[in-house]
Amino acid sequence: MSRVTARRKTMRISPTGVVRRPDSVAVEEPLEIRVDGRSLTVTMRTPGADIDLVHGFLFSEGLITAAADIVTARYCAGTDADGRNTYNVLDIRLRHPVPARPRNFLTNSSCGLCGKTALDEVRTRLPFPIPAAGLSVKTTVLTTLPGELRSRQTVFDATGGLHAAGLFTADGTALAVREDVGRHNAVDKVIGWALRENRLPAHDLVLMVSGRASFELVQKAAMAGIPLLCAVSAPSSLAVDMAEDAGLTLVGFLRGDSMNVYTGIERIDDVHSSSRTV
After folding, report:
1. Which residues are catalytic?
2. Helices 237-246 and 215-223, interaxial angle, to 10°?
3. Which of 3, 146, 230, 267 is most exposed by smallest CB count within 10 Å?
């Protein structure tokens, strides 16, 4: 299988001088996804959990609804300069033909579409409405999630250069954590895991991400029926609008013992008595 880290020469500059030494960096390689022999898309990713990635991507794009929709997934032959298999092309055979409609790229930040158009489009594609009642999580649990996620980032420990996404239960138990150079790929990987494990809709799970909360990540969470998305950094305006529209709880700046709850505060079960407006 392809490596997830590589060694590159670097010059370490510090007040004590300059040191030449090798450094570990995260591998970034293209993955071409083919459906029935025809190229669908190419994504830049960190190798590993590619099968989860493809399941999550195809599900998030609305091309499959269950793991059984994928009949086979096999790597196509391909070698690098050293004769090693690159594992950079996955050919997927679907049980049913790909829907006869062009793929949209609403999640691209440069697409030029207005927020309302994006929200309307996503709303029509959500397979699992998020229930208003059900999941309830304590703030004391939420504050543990960044640390739990970070403790499972083994490749980040070696490189410092990867995003992570994790699915957690309401008591903070980690079920799946995946790393990738792309935050959207990391989310696709954990959603793909959940799809393969028959855990969708994930109405009882929390999605924790290591970076910011973009519209794209909220869209993927909503597609999977995940009612609570937490991020260590900021959300975008459209991410907040999407979360509100989907009935999803969105938490940002989850660091230390504090957080910002942008939508769906009713799922945070221990804040109502102490809340105040400033």
Report:
1. 111
2. 20
3. 3
